[in-house]
From TrEMBL:
SMART domains: SAF. The lineage of its organism: Bacteria, Bacillati, Actinomycetota, Actinomycetes, Micrococcales. This is SAF domain-containing protein. Residues 54-115 form the SAF domain. InterPro entries: SAF. It comes from the Bacteria. It comes from Serinicoccus hydrothermalis. Pfam families: SAF.
Length: 212
């Protein structure tokens, strides 16, 4: 009896997704996307959105650390979500934002690629303040553009009202970057320092404007 050769094991979808998000694969994706940014039929075929693809901001040229971004430096492309790095940008960053890392042509931009000061582009008389939060679920459910109230972990008093969320991170040390005036920034620092246990500040997300 002839035995059939066993098929080689194929990676699970979850494992493939984890593999594709490694830095080396991010560079591979950049090379593929860079090829589609040039003119010609290749761009016309691959540039069309396919079912299930999502928008992502891509560098159209090699950009050095500290580069100030303009509308000519990036392009919105549609990419399969499984190959996108975490924190990818779905909308172009504010003009005048600057890079914290170098980017290759075709590389997908992420929030971590932008300098923190770039988050304040277009905002006047505010500073960016990092707030650690006690619960990763809170950081994970909070998005850039949300408005939050911040309360003291000691007595629950309001330390900051309607602070604008600039960036949210829900990793091992969850936290939020928020825009506040300098006085509020000092009050936030004092509120956290007043707690001998160093507990994270408490965050309440405000309801968005419903236009009613």
């Amino acid at each position: 009896m002839t035995r059939r050769a066993a098929r080689p094991a194929t990676p699970s979808r979850r494992g493939l997704t984890r593999f594709l998000r490694r830095p080396v694969l991010r560079r591979w994706l950049a090379a593929v996307l860079a090829a589609t940014t040039v003119g010609g039929s290749l761009h016309l075929v691959l540039g069309r959105p396919q079912p299930g693809e999502v928008p992502a901001v891509v560098a159209v040229r090699t950009l050095p650390v500290g580069a100030t971004l303009t509308a000519r430096d990036t392009q919105l492309r549609h990419v399969p979500p499984d190959v996108l790095p975490e924190g990818h940008l779905a909308e172009p960053p504010a003009e005048g934002s600057s890079l914290a890392v170098p980017l290759q042509a075709g590389e997908v931009l992420t929030a971590a690629d932008l300098r923190t000061s770039s988050l304040l582009a277009g905002l006047d008389d505010v500073v960016a303040v990092y707030l650690p939060v006690a619960d990763a679920a809170v950081a994970g459910a909070t998005l850039a553009g949300d408005r939050i109230d911040v309360h003291s972990p000691v007595d629950g008093s309001t330390v900051a009202s309607e602070a604008l969320v600039l960036r949210a991170g829900a990793g091992e040390e969850p936290g939020l970057w928020v825009a506040v005036d300098e006085r509020t920034a000092s009050e936030l620092a004092a509120a956290r320092g007043a707690d001998p246990l160093g507990a994270a500040l408490l965050v309440a997300v405000r309801a968005g404007d419903t236009g009613g």
